[in-house]
Amino acid sequence: MSRIVAGAAGGSPLTSVPGDGTRPTTDRVKEALFSRLESMNMLNGTRVLDLYAGSGSLGVESASRGATSVELIEFNDKAAAVCQSNADLVNKVVGSKVVRVQRSKVEAFLARAAESATEPWDLVFMDPPYPLTEEELALVLELLAPHLSSFAVVVVERSARAPQPRWPESMALLSDKKYGETRLWFAEPVTD
After folding, report:
1. How far apart (Å, rounded) are the C-alpha atoms in residues 63 and 9?
2. 183 and 158 in contact (C-beta within 8 Å)?
3. Domain that holds residue 71
4. N or C terminus of the chain with fewer C-beta within 10 Å?
5. Which residue intervals make up region (Disordered) (predicted)?
6. How many distinct structural domains can be found in the chain?
């Protein structure tokens, strides 16, 4: 069973998405990821975007650890309902509606964000389904890039066998780390 690892809602069990349409981040990977993000001071007071959210576990973990705003974007009906359940749990614990869920395709959400001039995000999680092609992932990264704060970090989670994402010119690789069958890539905006 997946759980919130630390913070205000630490130890709380999370609802999982039924079936095999999603690939949850293991607790081991999540603990390592959030340890790294805390060392980078990327959690407290940040605006977080969780694309292809699945159960929303990365976004709600961020809210539990002090993020001020979290958007969970998920298109699958069952997964979006699970996101809402997990968001409600964390929002109740932290005492405000920090986590919001939008049922949307990622590309459509980012297109709407461009039209509405939303505030930039500081931390972005992307755990796209394996069938998403490298070209499709590159397009999403291109759409995302203009919506990042100058100190943002983008974390892409893929199979350890997948190639490094093709970053847009306005983003650069910080580092990557392999955890068994999972690899995390960390990128940041290129500043002049």
Report:
1. 9
2. yes
3. 28-189
4. C
5. 1-26
6. 1
